[in-house]
Amino acid sequence: MSREVRTVVYDPDLHLEAYQFEGIMQKFPNHFHDYYVIGFIEEGKRHLICNNQEYLLNSGDIIIFNPQDPHACEQVDGRKLDYRCINIQPEVMLDYVREITGQAYLPRFSTHVLYQSELVSSLHELHQFILEEQHDFCKEEMLFLLLDQLLKDYTDTETAEAEQNITLEIRQLCDYMEVHYTENISLNELSELSGLSKYHLLRQFTRQKGISPYRYLETIRINQAKRLLEQGLPPIDVAAQTGFSDQSHFTNFFKKLIGLTPKQYRRIFNHGAETKRLQENKR
User: What region holds the HTH araC/xylS-type domain (predicted)?
Assistant: First the structure.
């Protein structure tokens, strides 16, 4: 009988989330996060598409996503996935980068996959310390050393070329959706705002951003929903406040992107609890 385990821990010392998925078969559709993701494959094989580039991932490979990097993945040959990652919010990353480099900037990692990286052991050890809820400064030291190495070897300090190639019309559409995500936005409305036909809008947006306009909008809604759930709001209220047509649609899409239901995610941030931890077992 198959066994699926999803464990999420929020570390109040490091101010980041740690995810561990064991034995999962879930396919994640194209989406992005508003935070950094640094993870690795423990077991299994995955097909990854990130920023329109394709990768084949195996155990021992590290993946790195910048905020706004569109990505999708699925298992290969029916093999189950064991995966761990840490999620770092931009404001938290900014503090770490300032400590390490003496400069306040948000890094852009130029490499998405580190094949068979020697840094896996360091990331695994750090992740395990977080799961075990260790409170001494060893885990902070490990995080600083890991980020220092990644910053030195895998960042591009200049503005990303992809961002330079985003046209004014597409930037305006992104800005509009980020402000009006709670509303019932139509393709006609976006077409009128951009001055592009609906067909050319879809083509240009997807080519430049690596994600379709509707998927971009739903991802914004999910990212906002996470913040509300972290504050303790019930999922039914969060669905209404983030523009989803109903709670069922919200729940289904949230799990597709995050790997947890809104209710499960909210429990990690159960206010008043000493630790912020969730472990779900499914047989």
Answer: 171-268
The dihedrals phi and psi of 93, each to the nearest 5 degrees, come to -60, -40
Cα 94 to Cα 104: distance, rounded to the nearest angstrom: 6
Which domains are seen in the chain, by residue range? 4-154 (2.60.120.10), 166-268 (1.10.10.60)
Q: Over its length of 283 residues, how does the chain's per-residue pLDDT go in tens digits?
A: 467 899 999 999 999 999 999 999 889 999 999 999 999 999 999 999 999 899 999 999 999 999 999 999 998 888 899 999 999 999 999 999 999 999 989 999 999 999 999 999 999 999 999 999 888 888 999 999 999 999 999 997 554 444 557 899 999 999 999 999 999 999 999 999 999 999 999 999 999 998 999 999 999 999 999 999 989 999 999 999 999 988 899 999 899 888 889 998 888 776 434 345 566 666 5
